[in-house]
Amino acid sequence: MSKDIDKEIVEQPDDAAAERQENQEQEQADVAEMEVNDQEETDEAADTAGEAGEIEKLRAEVQESKDKYLRLYSEFENFRRRTAKEKLDLIKTANQDLMTALIPVIDDFERAQKALEESEDHTTSKEGFELIYNKFNNILKQKGLKAMQDETGSEFNTEFHEAISQVPVDKRDLKGKIIDVVEKGYYLDDKVIRFAKVVLGA
Questions:
Q1: Domain at 158, CATH number
Q2: Which pLDDT score, from 0 to 100, does residue 17 have?
Q3: Greater pLDDT, 196 or 15
Q4: Which of 116, 143, 170 is the last residue of a domain?
Q5: How many CB atoms lie within 10 A of CB 108?
Q6: pTM of the prediction?
Q7: Is 60 exceeded by the pLDDT of residue 9?
Q8: Number of compact structural domains in the chain
Q9: 187 class by beta-carbon count within 10 Å (0-12 exposed, 13-18 middle, 19+ buried)
């Protein structure tokens, strides 16, 4: 009986030591797990911070692109308005230039008309009108206007002529050709601005 008690006394300290050892191991395991969890949280926080930084960077790039687009759009609109205004000004200036050149011709016509009313010398009046006509023609030529040559007897060409009628002809070689020019055609520089109105032989 005494031996059993002694054995029990001896075994109790061993059990306590084992329990302490187990508790220590558990505590160490808990500490290790907490460290792992802390590291994971730190990594997650770093990842989140990295993603937030990337998002902020992308937002800045998008904003920069928007600003560039708005600047380009504004510059294009200004360019378009300026070009339209310059074009309109050019048209107005071209018309103004022509009108300014024609004013002296109007003055000459008015003087000639007044002289015609006061004079009975029609020869002088005729010469005056011829001078005005020549002056007028010279101004138009300077502006690039040129009359087509009289093309009676030449081939009909749709690029320059407009046939307004056909009349029978005796000569076979005049059939399908221009036999009369009712209105002269005109070029402005090299562009046809009025077709010559012609009569064709049939």
A1: 2.30.22.10
A2: 64
A3: 196
A4: 143
A5: 17
A6: 0.50
A7: no
A8: 2
A9: middle
C-alpha 196/C-alpha 156 separation (Å) is: 10
User: 161 near 194, Cβ under 8 Å?
Assistant: no
Segment 59-81 shows an average pLDDT of 92
Among 148, 129, 159, 152, residue whose Cα is nearest residue 186: 148
The predicted model gives 45-69 an average pLDDT of 84
